[in-house]
Backbone:
């Protein structure tokens, strides 16, 4: 069976693809999540495991996922079914696409709640409320926000709507515009913040914290968290990057673009860490203070620097945009599935998927204030509220297992010649990739899982 070239939309150029995929990868995962989980997991050793996961697992699997998407040129469910048929394999591989769509909706439900916090902080900065903040008042301000369910609900709804609105308009009109200016601007502003952090006198201590590996601080859970975050930050394992690959022009090199995306993503995360930890140390804050880290540290800095309200507003606007260019990729697979398989219009499909994620998000909002619970998950991991549960379920389990399935499909199920055609690499490089995707990436994912679950 051959695959018909469909006449659907494509990114206008390779550069646009790189920017869009980077837009998906760079988001709250880099600026909000990476610093706080690094803090919670003891720093350097965690960062090292994370970087190893990015290079040995994330990059090869990203190439595989883009490759599958571009060859299938459809939503993840149909792409998997089609590619399995092309290699005379079971149509049940379509399940991978279904699980991806579900993972996207689950992640979106809490992603948009957190993104709502960043929207609020745009206002706080603009209103000059950062001026004169101390460690105590900054923490109190953040806790105050969490205790306002109606406000959180409003912000969550606003962000959900923003996401649905862009996805409803489709790839070109919706996504391309947002990404071309905003990504470079974010990068520039982060550079300024790192520069400021360097003046606090705690920069060296932060570099030590981030890059000096002390393996005694590394628990089994930290390893699994690092693995999961490598998938989360690169938007891997649930079909988002597969979707983006499906809009990629045929002549663009998958390997090169993957490397660029992974590099930029990692750079942004490390810069976010370098901007925040000096402030943590300078103000005597807790490194392990959790999801509030971004919202407590940076406002203190903006309260002190020259034109801080201006830069603070700009910074949080850019974080909102970074989150926005990521969230659209979370609901894109579900939207594309509905658009390509039902009579629904793209816009209706986008609003429908967003609505489902929004509903679950309402429960997430409540889990930050009135509704709290905690229970053990998968025997070892204790979760603390619905946000934690969804985060762990998706990042730590669904994404790595989805990625594992993608690796197995690309390395063992799909015919070698198809992968070879699609990647279009010199023999030597293809062989390196092929060996990694068949053996190294799957073996590492499995080993890290078994280790963390206490098997050895
Ligand atoms: N990578 C994004 C971030 O770091 C989040 C994200 C967007 C994502 N699309 C995804 C995570 C798909 C997992 C899967 O903020």
Residues:
């Amino acid at each position: 069976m051959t695959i018909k070239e469909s006449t659907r939309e494509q990114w206008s150029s390779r550069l646009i693809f790189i920017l869009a995929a980077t837009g998906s990868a760079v988001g709250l995962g880099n600026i909000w999540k990476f610093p706080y989980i690094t803090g919670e997991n003891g720093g350097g050793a965690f960062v090292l495991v994370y970087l190893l996961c990015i290079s040995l697992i994330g990059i090869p699997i990203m190439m595989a996922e883009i490759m599958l998407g571009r060859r299938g040129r459809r939503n993840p469910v149909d792409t998997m079914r089609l590619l399995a048929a092309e290699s005379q394999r079971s149509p049940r591989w379509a399940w991978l696409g279904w699980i991806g769509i579900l993972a996207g909706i689950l992640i979106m439900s809490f992603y948009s709640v957190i993104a709502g916090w960043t929207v609020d902080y745009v206002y706080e900065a603009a209103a000059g409320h950062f001026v004169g903040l101390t460690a105590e008042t900054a923490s109190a301000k953040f806790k105050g926000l969490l205790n306002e369910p109606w406000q959180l609900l409003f912000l969550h709804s606003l962000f959900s709507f923003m996401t649905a609105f862009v996805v409803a308009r489709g790839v070109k009109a919706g996504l391309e515009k947002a990404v071309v200016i905003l990504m470079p601007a974010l990068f520039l502003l982060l550079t300024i913040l790192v520069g400021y952090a360097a003046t606090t006198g705690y920069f060296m201590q932060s570099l030590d914290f981030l890059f000096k590996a002390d393996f005694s601080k590394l628990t089994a859970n930290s390893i699994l968290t690092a693995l999961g975050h490598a998938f989360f930050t690169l938007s891997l394992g649930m079909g988002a990057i597969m979707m983006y690959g499906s809009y990629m022009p045929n002549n663009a090199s998958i390997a090169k673009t993957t490397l660029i995306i992974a590099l930029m993503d990692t750079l942004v995360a490390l810069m976010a860490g370098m901007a925040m930890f000096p402030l943590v140390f300078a103000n005597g804050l807790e490194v392990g203070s959790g999801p509030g880290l971004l919202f407590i540290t940076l406002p203190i800095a903006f309260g002190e620097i020259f034109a801080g309200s201006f830069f603070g507003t700009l910074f949080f606007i850019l974080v909102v945009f970074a989150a926005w260019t990521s969230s659209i990729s979370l609901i894109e697979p579900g939207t594309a599935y509905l658009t390509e398989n039902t009579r629904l219009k793209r816009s209706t499909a986008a609003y429908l998927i967003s609505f489902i994620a929004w509903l679950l998000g309402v429960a997430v909002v409540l889990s930050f204030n009135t509704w709290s619970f905690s229970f053990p998950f998968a025997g070892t991991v204790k979760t603390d509220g619905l946000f934690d549960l969804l985060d762990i379920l998706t990042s730590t389990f669904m994404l790595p297992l989805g990625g594992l399935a993608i690796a197995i499909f690309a390395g063992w199920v799909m015919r070698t010649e198809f992968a070879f055609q699609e990647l279009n690499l010199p023999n030597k490089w293809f062989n390196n990739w092929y060996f990694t995707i068949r053996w190294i990436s799957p073996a590492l994912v499995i080993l890290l899982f078994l280790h963390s679950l206490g098997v050895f």
